[in-house]
Design brief:
Shape of chain A: globular
Oligomer: heterodimer
Strand content of chain A: 35-45%
Largest interface: A-B, 33 and 27 residues
Largest sheet of chain A: 6 strands, mixed
Order of helices and strands of chain B: HHEEEEEEEEHEEEEEEEE
Structural class of chain A: mainly beta
Radius of gyration of chain B: 20 Å
Shape of chain B: globular
Distance between the termini of chain B: 65 Å
Largest sheet of chain B: 12 strands, antiparallel, barrel
Number of strands of chain A: 32
Number of helices of chain A: 4
Number of strands of chain B: 16
Strand order of the largest sheet of chain A: 12-9-14-19-16-17
Number of helices of chain B: 3
Strand order of the largest sheet of chain B: 1-2-3-4-5-6-7-10-11-14-15-16
Helix content of chain A: under 10%
Strand content of chain B: over 45%
Chain lengths: 449, 313
């Protein structure tokens, strides 16, 4: 029998669900959870007359913001009221495999009508998020194509907090369908793009005052799209990426985020007016990706100003030199696609094999490893390592250091090296965060010996 | 019907009036005219075709602010060797057509053609120009097949074409299924202005002329292709071109144009398109062997800047 990600998930995750649920019940632990999440279908009006039928948490998109002190245990009950098995992944958190929310690692799928209790101690501090980690395959109304995502902010013990206002923004694309992609195969395309589930002009504006410093946490929760974002007439100073402070905070006219990437930026409100904060690409703003920033006592309609050319380079926010730490072992990872026709979805391989047939990579606790990613495709790929944080050490052979992330975009036909320390034993998933790619083979497992 | 012994006279009269090269400049680039065998009682002989652009269209339109420049080179390796009605025999003729296609938005484009012909001793001759707007059903409508509608209008010199002015409407339907791709172009042409028949034609001859050479109604000549892609770098398949005659009054199968081209399309780069084919005529009214080549290069005029409104990444 050929096993793909769907059957792997069904066999392993569903089997584990019963086992994992049982202790909660048998132990008789009935303590109230700190957070309750209910997964259920909903109709989302992203603009007047434009309704998206999707699945979300607690009847809203994005799901509720979870703010939690670093190091304090949390209990989250998740009830699945959707018709399909679901699971919640706590993205960027360094927690045990069984709680991470990826069935490939051993976290249980939650059957329809079922419930699961996640209990862990959130760490490290910073801007994390949570989202479904379910298989979608050809069904582009499941998985991360839905509204199952939310922000999870782990408050640091010592928060500098040099800002006057703080906002969270989530980017997402809706009504996915398969269309001709950039690498000669079908890829997901979308009808609408939103910020916080509203199309440009149909959400309450963000109200600011002149002179304020506004901290903006931006999450790209798209299933597959890389997004540019700019605030017309303003510079964005990047303080953190994927929740981790950058070594070199740098101002930029626009930021670029791959699926699952986050950025914490601070904006000094020094240009009074009513402005569009939106996708820099016109067609995506027209598709809805934008929101309005409104200064107090400013008349008029929202304006867009084309940002100057912006070259996005991780090195701008890092130390432009090689890391001081040397890895004990290098792990080459070669990414390639298998063509199945211009009207079909390509399958993806890591070192020549598609998940779940990829070679499991073994890790030794305490060792520092270097993942040498070689992208032999014409697509960019946002690679995500579960339950660990890595340091980017080179992009296209140019060295950098000090930039710690959990997602990195590997350029088309390019290379990226990242180092990480194996400090969180348990099965660890590594995959492309493009839902189409991961569902069609682009993932592998690391296991500790 | 013109009597057989009228044929030489008819040929002589027509040959001084026009060359029967035909320019459609659209999907069915095989010219469909010169049905003068009907006059002469020579079925399949007094028929010629013109090969300025031999291509089956997809429904997809060009990306906005992108210009595609194509050179269509068509060589008749084996065709009629007889001079008919003043027209040089198609065998060993070379036609070069420049096609410019500009994307306007995500559902429309406009194309422009420059037709040329090479004749031995005459160098390159300008034949004519056509303009071709095209609209498509936007992808966001999620139709199960691609659909677009092309219309083409233009002029060609009477020395090379009859009609001189023509208008074409062509619905296009296509679909990609895995490695397979098919497209059907339903070409319909209205002759806006034709070379008039010789003044000394009898009413019967004129009637035959307007029925078989220059129909007053809409003519039909579908084209289609079916390809298979073993690799992302090329596909191969077959293209079909035809001419059936006027709607409601199709010419006999013997006098129809039916041509099949085994083709190879190369995708060496997103900016380049390359097509090779060799066409086999299935009826006596069709040239027996035509070799064609299309080389296209796209140019991005949007001045896309990283992070800018026109950026594609």
């Amino acid at each position: 029998m050929v096993t793909n990600r769907r059957t792997f998930v069904a066999q392993s995750g569903m089997a584990l669900a019963g086992a994992a649920l049982a202790p909660c019940i048998l132990d008789g632990v009935q303590t109230q959870p700190d957070i309750k999440l209910e997964i259920a279908p909903l109709s989302l009006e992203i603009a007047p007359g434009k309704v998206v039928h999707t699945v979300g948490y607690n009847g809203r998109v994005p799901g509720p913001l979870i703010r939690w002190p670093e190091g304090k245990p949390i209990v989250i009950d998740v009830a699945n009221r959707s018709p399909v098995p679901e699971i919640v992944h706590w993205h960027g958190l360094e927690i045990p495999s069984g709680m991470d929310g990826a069935s490939e690692e051993g976290s249980p799928m939650i059957p329809p009508g079922g419930q699961f209790r996640y209990a862990f101690t959130p760490r490290p501090a910073g801007f994390r998020w949570y989202h479904t980690h379910a298989f979608a395959g050809h069904d582009l109304k499941r998985g991360s194509y839905t509204g199952q995502f939310g922000c999870f902010y782990i408050e640091p013990r010592n928060d500098a907090g040099a800002y006057d206002q703080e906002i969270f923004l989530t980017l997402h694309d809706w009504n996915a369908y398969l269309a001709a992609g950039g690498d000669s195969s079908m890829e997901a395309a979308y009808d609408y793009s939103t910020i916080d589930a509203h199309m440009l002009g149909y959400a309450a504006p963000v109200r600011v005052r002149e002179g304020q410093r506004v901290l903006v946490h931006v999450l790209n929760a798209s299933a597959s799209m890389i997004h540019w974002l700019a605030l017309a007439g303003h510079e964005l100073t990047v303080l953190a990426m994927d929740g981790n402070p950058v070594p070199t905070p740098t101002s930029t006219p626009a930021i670029r985020l791959g699926p699952a990437e986050r950025a914490d930026v601070v904006v000094t409100m020094n240009h009074p007016g009513i402005w569009v904060l939106g996708e820099t690409r016109e067609r995506l703003r027209k598709a809805g990706m934008g929101t309005v920033i409104e200064y107090a006592n400013q008349p008029g309609t929202p304006r867009w100003i084309e940002p100057p050319e912006t070259l996005w380079d991780y090195r701008r926010f890092a130390k432009p030199r090689a890391t001081d730490h040397q890895p004990g072992q290098a792990i080459p990872l070669r990414f390639e696609s298998k063509f199945h026709g211009p009207g079909a979805v390509a399958t993806w391989t890591i070192n020549g094999k598609s998940f779940p047939h990829t070679d499991t990579i073994t890790l030794k606790e305490g060792e520092r490893y270097r993942l040498q990613m070689i992208n032999r495709s014409g697509d960019e790929h946002p690679l995500h390592l579960h339950r660990h944080t890595f340091e980017i050490t080179s992009v296209n052979s140019l060295p950098l250091s000090g930039l710690n992330k959990d997602v990195v975009i590997v350029p088309a036909n390019g290379t990226v090296d990242v180092d990480f320390t194996a400090n969180n034993p348990g099965a660890t998933l590594f995959h492309c965060h493009n839902q189409t790619h991961m569902d069609f083979g682009f993932m592998t497992l690391f296991r500790y010996v | 019907m013109v009597r057989t012994n009228d044929a030489d006279e008819l040929v002589s009269m027509l040959s001084c009036k026009f060359d029967m090269h035909e320019v459609w400049g659209s999907t069915v680039r095989v010219s469909m005219w010169l049905v003068l065998a009907m006059f002469a009682g020579w079925p399949g002989i007094a028929r010629a075709q013109d090969n300025y652009e031999i291509q089956v269209y997809p429904s997809e339109t060009m990306t906005p602010k992108t210009l595609l420049v194509e050179l269509h080179s068509n060589f008749t390796a084996e065709g009629s060797t007889a001079t008919q009605f003043g027209m040089l025999p198609p065998e060993h003729q070379e036609h070069e057509t420049i096609e410019l296609t500009q994307g306007i938005n995500d559902w429309s484009e406009i194309g422009f053609y420059i037709f040329t012909a090479e004749k031995s001793g005459n160098g390159i001759q300008w034949v004519g120009d056509h303009i071709r707007p095209r609209v498509r059903v936007p992808e966001r409508w999620h139709w199960p097949v691609g659909v677009s509608l092309s219309t083409e209008f233009g002029y060609a010199r009477s020395a090379f074409s009859n009609p001189t002015w023509s208008w074409q409407i062509m619905p296009i339907v296509d679909q990609t299924i895995g490695r397979w791709y098919w497209s059907v172009n339903g070409t319909m042409v209205w002759d806006v202005h034709v070379v008039p028949p010789p003044t000394n034609f009898s009413p019967e001859q004129k009637q035959a002329y307007y029925r078989d050479v220059a129909p007053r109604g809409v003519t039909f000549g579908p084209a289609a292709t079916l390809t298979y892609a073993p690799s992302k770098y090329y596909n191969f398949g077959v293209e079909y071109y035809s001419y059936y005659g006027e709607w409601g009054n199709f010419v006999s199968l013997h006098n129809q144009q039916q041509q099949f081209f085994p083709v190879v399309n190369l995708f060496v780069s997103p900016k380049w398109e390359i097509n090779f084919g060799a066409g086999w005529g299935a009826t006596s009214a069709t040239d027996h062997l035509i070799v064609k080549c299309i080389i296209g290069r796209s140019f991005d005029w949007s001045h896309r800047r990283a992070g800018g409104s026109k950026s594609s990444q």
